[in-house]
Amino acid sequence: MDTTLLNMDASLNIEEWNGKEQWHPMGHPNDMLQKPPLIIKKGKGVHIEDNHGRKMIDGFAGLWNINCGYNRQEIKDAIINQLDELVYYSTFKGTSHPRSIELAHLLMEMTKPENMKRVMFSSGGSDAMETAMRIARQYWKMEGQKDRYKFISLKQGYHGTHFGAASVNGNTRFRRNYEPLLPGCSHIDAPWTYRNPYTENPEELGKICAELLEREIQFQSPDTVAAFIMEPVLGAGGVIVPPDNFMPLVREVCDKYDVLLIADEVVTGFGRSGSMFGSRAWGVKPDIMTLAKGISSGYIPLGATLCNERIDNVFKANNDSFGAIGHGYTYSGHPVACAAAIAALNIVIKEDLPANARKLGNHLMNRLKPFENTYKTVGDVRGKGLMFAIEFVKDKTSKKPNREIVSKIHKKMIEKGAFVRASGNAIIISPPLIINKKELDSIVDIFETSLIEAEAL
Ligand code: PMP
After folding, report:
1. Which of 126, 154, 296 to mutate to test the pocket of ligand 1 (most atoms within 8 A of CB)?
2. Which GO molecular function annotation, any one, does this entry have (predicted)?
3. Can you spell out the DSSP letters for 386-446?
């Protein structure tokens, strides 16, 4: 065996290797050499550092997941203790292990208001959505309604990359190259106050979009629709915050036609939108909730799909092969991931991170909203808790998207020490939930200076 292969010092060739050898999610392979990514080497608290020693405040919490911040001793200890005790055992029928049992119990306690009764673990958000869609289909088969296999979701919604999740994604960019996707998936307009053909009145819009759901259920024929899927606040689609009445009205429509409601809480779960769960902020109890990202604060990949009593009861009542779950992953409930999650959720609860997100989210809104009037390119500022989007336009009447200024601002912000996400014509700010006011203000200050400079170019 040629052991010289193992003498790798990535620091010598880091940009070149990265550009030539790795395909990055959601990027064009050629871009990686022409527009090389930041290579992040270190993280502590809310700060990250790249391979050139450049320090930045992380205004995007990794990928909406590092809610408890980087390098937390409690989470690292939990991971190391678990590695010492048991690195892996499966949770396939016949075996289990203490950490998955403890985490399942903690999640059931945390979702008592939603009446959740069961959890199935996986390794991320796409896995969790795949699980949710399969459970929904199996539920209806067990109920004797075998034609109920269809899913309805929102345009601009994002639910992941497996064929199931991709089929309910509402963005052509994530669908087009992989079609045909699952049959029976359709989409309705999202309640996007800034961009919709109906009305500028949020309450009216919430009603109209709930009516669109009702009409789509009727069009598909109610006895064929398994579930409606939505993010309580749409994240990757550009932080679209539905009007207050939308999700409660959706619940009513789902109940009217006996359609299951799946809440994709992969981003909104565990405090991001200012409540422990996004659905809770709207006072809605979904039938199924998908969780990932913040569940382990991003330290180890983990996903979870939670089901309420209605679904649990039907599985329990079907004692034959119908009720058996023909689904699951080698890493469903990986002990190290579960240990990390228990430690992370302890921090979320003890430090009341949802309350911090709520409080600082209000502060962020107070600081950013006036930018709509102050700056000619700022079209819309929206957010809830600590998830915000600032949309840039060429002019405020046509609302033509201004992507050019976004890349200029993004670049300038990195130079000045703040990393945020550039997404089309929007800047997204969504920092770790442990952030304090001073740190958050420094992101806003850097954003404002960069915006002024970019507008002057
Ligand atoms: N659902 C939502 C709402 C998401 O934002 C994401 C990822 N950004 C996913 C699902 C998919 O999660 P993952 O990338 O962990 O598979």
Report:
1. 126
2. transaminase activity
3. TEEEEEEBS-TTT--B-HHHHHHHHHHHHHHTEE-EEETTEEEE---TT--HHHHHHHHHH
